[in-house]
């Protein structure tokens, strides 16, 4: 009868503690008061087609660029650091799951003791005791502390995985962006060198015209200066090429070296830039996911901090063998054991529990704001990249017309210089300089288009799938 009463009491206590635990910890809910639908400025699309779902091998079709990205994914040191953090987070998660099991330790000891004569011992008598024991201790998760800790480490693991994907996305974007810059510098160098050769020919033409008294000596000198004004930019272009190659080498995890590459003219721009709907950022963009998992981590730590205000129930047990001789040491008569249960209620902890809770709540508030800020920044980056691409397309169309007419202006002024007195070399000089500037700017327009596509792809969370 007494045994039945004890069992009923244990059931009642278990039910009561379970109900109490439901009030101590609180389930996580996704942050509210964030209007995701308005993240993209001037966009009302409902089309869920998203270029972020496109594998990077399909977006970047240049074989040289694909080889560089593969090398970067394999050797990049930032990515290796992210993988190491992920392994550490996985270890913490495994330990949080094993915390539900008892701790068990074993002890084997030999004790030799001389008892004082005053206590009944003799001068040459020693007592020797052999002991083999095991101790187990288990804490009941009454208030959900262990469950909240496990959920916190799960969020931390998922955050580390999102961080790894964010690093990969950024890595791919960095390699592609610098690769296109490298091609642009190559093209600018090619045009500049061709311009220098053309202006060398202009110098010889001006010398011939001076001999015919068509132009003056000042015009010849100006033509020489015009040639050097183009040639002086070549060292800077060579420096930019070398520095960009060095930057790409760092992303590839190798010492600075030359980069195999194609040409700018072969690079195609994907005009089908689908952004999808803003809600897809939550599923695609790793840094947004990372920010939310960080928030969840501190949310669960707040739950853990609450449990420290409530009593903890622990059960410990010890058992083993003890004897003064190894003969028949494993007989049942040498067995000993004990079991104990304790309920500990915090009373005065020097404000430690309150401090732990306040810090956890402050961290939770901080990372809630960080999550919202990350989401807003993501929407801003998508909007800016899309506008940047459209602006580059508009400029490229206008720039093409500008170059066409500037080329005609150069040709016309050169012809007029030869046969009429209605023009002078200053007109030729002005038209040539304007043409070179427009040609170099047209390369920048193409580069802006390519890099805007890369930025938009990264901003939407593409690259890691």
> N-to-C terminal Cα separation, in Å?
64 Å
Largest beta-sheet characterization: 4 strands, antiparallel
Radius of gyration, taken over Cα atoms and rounded to an integer in Å: 38 Å
Mean pLDDT level: 84
Structural class: alpha+beta
Number of helices: 11
* Widest β-sheet, arrangement of strands: 1-2-3-4
The topology string of helices and strands comes to HHHHEEHHHHHEEHH
How helical, in percent, are the residues?
55-70%
The shape is: elongated
Report the count of strand segments.
Answer: 4
In percent terms, what proportion of residues is strand?
A: 5-15%
Low-confidence stretches: none
How would you describe the overall organization of this protein?
The protein has 465 residues and is of the alpha+beta class. 63% of the residues lie in helices and 10% in strands. The chain contains 11 helices and 4 strands, in the order ααααββαααααββαα. Strands 1-2-3-4 form a 4-stranded antiparallel beta sheet, with no helix packed on it. The longest helix is centred in the last third of the chain and has 68 residues, at 352-419. The radius of gyration is 38 Å and the shape is elongated. The two termini are 64 Å apart.
Summarize this entry quickly.
By secondary structure, the chain is an alpha+beta fold.
Identify the notable features of this structure and list them briefly:
465 residues; alpha+beta; 11 helices; 4 strands; elongated
